[in-house]
Description:
- There is one protein chain.
- It contains ten helices and 15 strands.
- It starts with a helix and ends with a helix.
Amino acid sequence: MKRIFLLLLIVFTFTTPHATAASSVVRITDRPHVNLLGDFVDNDLAKDLLPGGRLGELVSPFGSTNKTWVIDPALIDEITLMSKGYSVKGKEDKDGELAAKNWLARLKFSIGGSPVISLPYGNPDQALAKRLAPSELRFYSAYGKTRLETHLGRTVTSENGWGKGVSRLSNPLKSLYSNNRRALTSLSTLTSAREVLDLRARLAIVMNPALDKRTGAVFSYSASVAVKNVSSKLRVSPGRFQLTSTNSKVPVTLINNFDTPTVVSVSLIPMNSRVQIENVDNVVLAAKSRQQISIDVDVVAPGSTLVYAQFMNAKGQLVGEQSELNLNAKIIDARVAWFTTGAAVLLFVGAIAQSVRRVRRSRNEK
């Protein structure tokens, strides 16, 4: 009986998959090193990629089928960026470039045919991301999977639950993240420009658990600057205009600095009742263009009026930066105009008569 039990135990041992011993997990993650403006904030990654560095020790020139690789695609993007040549604080680092190239090559050999799991792009605190914006977490996962497959040239799996750590992002910075996220998601309803999509994904790195409070704040504020820069590429140009009739046409310039065309509507909101003005719908803006449109303005009363101009998407949602149009209406009543013209004529005639009298007087004196 003991022999039968021992035989069954041996068979069970060799036929059952070993989740821990036969398939160890290798995690390729790190804190971000490139801010939302695309600048390297330090050069620590170059050391970590060396064979004796933290990330360098995880890869080798030999493949293995006994490992499961869990990878942050944003980190691979950063290393790929290094491998194409980079600088830190204006100083180029050729050694770091070479270390990045070698590490990427070793990574592909090390992975071989092993299973690869893509973390959501930027490796955000998944619990926090899900609480702040569940749909955006799905976007980070889908975007990260696509990016990692592009880098590795093979299919990978995207599964939630593999992330570790808790974000140290403060409540004010969480609100800042939400504002930036809304700005980018609304902007993406008007343009399919790649830079908007990429920045929207990179916004996830502010929730990376490896960032401490100070560096989390640095990355969060760089995100706000980046979002403002991108949003300003699609805007209504501000201006000042003089209105001299009750029915005026105001030339307003619309700007699209993205490399993709778009269709926009323009929301026009006057801050008082001196003028009446309507929104403009479905204006086609070519890529990299400045287009002038004529807006009809009905003047109700003279004076200054501030008009807020902003783009709208197909759902009527305001998108992008808000611009100011300053309208100054100087309308003269018709009766006043006739009186003023008549008075001017009389003064002119009087001046001529006085000149004639002076000429005659001078002749008589001679």
